[in-house]
Amino acid sequence: MSARYDHVELHEFATRLFQAAGLAPERAAVLAEVFLEADLMGFTTHGMNRVASNLQWLLDGDSRGEGEPAVLADRGAVFNWDANFLPGPWVVSQALETALARVPEHGVVTATLRRSQHIACLAAYCPRVIEAGYMVLMTCSTPSERTVSAFGGSEALFSANPLAMAAPGEDYPLLFDISMSITAGGYVARARREGERLPEPCLKDAAGNITDDPAALEGPPPGSIMPLGGAGHGYKGAALSIATEVLSMALGGYGRDDEQSSGDGEANSVFLQVIDPAAFGSLEAFKRQLQALQALVTGSAVPEGAPPVRFPGQRAWQLRSEQLRHGVALYPTIMQDIAPWARQLGVTVPAELP
């Protein structure tokens, strides 16, 4: 059963952990905010679940705790940075804040980043954009990672390449964060750790056999995750995998063609775009159209006895509001993994809520 913690106390706890690992207080607070935001919306594999790995990277020197990103290109509405292994949540937050500051002038601001340490959950960056009245489109890829096969192939070629989009609405936003693979690597790892099969056959073993056994991904020899659409329609997901790598790697000028990228670990190439709906007309008109679309989807007919159709972002935004009021429910293994770090770094674990 998931333990529940006070949101403020959990943020302070994660902030102190990152400070103890060598981050300046303001950077530590940003990492804590991004990881916690993911759990608030129910993205449990890429939120606080990533705290332990980020602490390890900081202490091992795989993440660069100090310094700024290098500016490779800047034309106002377009910029490209080399993060040089700065902590992903911090450097992406910096890029997003830069885009938010510029979007009133330009209407649309687009950025790419290379060599950002793993940026965790894309959806976690979206609330600040939504609350500012803007849209955001984000994707990322991992140049050194090959876990997802092309359609019809058995060899792992791509990373999972999530795509997120968010936009402000009247009652709740549009918000989604989905991988271009049929499942995310985090869910495969969790299933293997817990000795469970996957809910459906999502993988191929090294021989190309379709399976629901999570051990097939790691092997040996290693298998692959099928692209979104699976065995029947995975050509769609494979095309989207290529599209996201073009946006994040090709536009950023760093990725599969760079020999040194093979040693980048989980570092990401990132694409983000912030859009001001008011630059095209008015925010009010935009929200009216989105609200009509939401009503169209949620009011659609369902089989007798079936739950109503949900609009992307409806459940996540409701869960976020509830957990801000009543406490954040962490997946059971998350605090198990963080607690040893807390003892090592001398940080007190927050008490569970009754």
TrEMBL record:
GO MF annotation terms: oxidoreductase activity
Pfam family, one: Ldh_2
Keyword annotations of the record: Oxidoreductase
Stored InterPro entries: Mal/L-sulf/L-lact_DH-like_ah, Mal/L-sulf/L-lact_DH-like_NADP, Mal/L-sulfo/L-lacto_DH-like_sf, Malate/L-lactate_DH-like
Keyword Magnesium: no
Family label: Belongs to the LDH2/MDH2 oxidoreductase family.
Name this protein carries in UniProt: Ldh family oxidoreductase
Source organism of the structure: Kineobactrum salinum
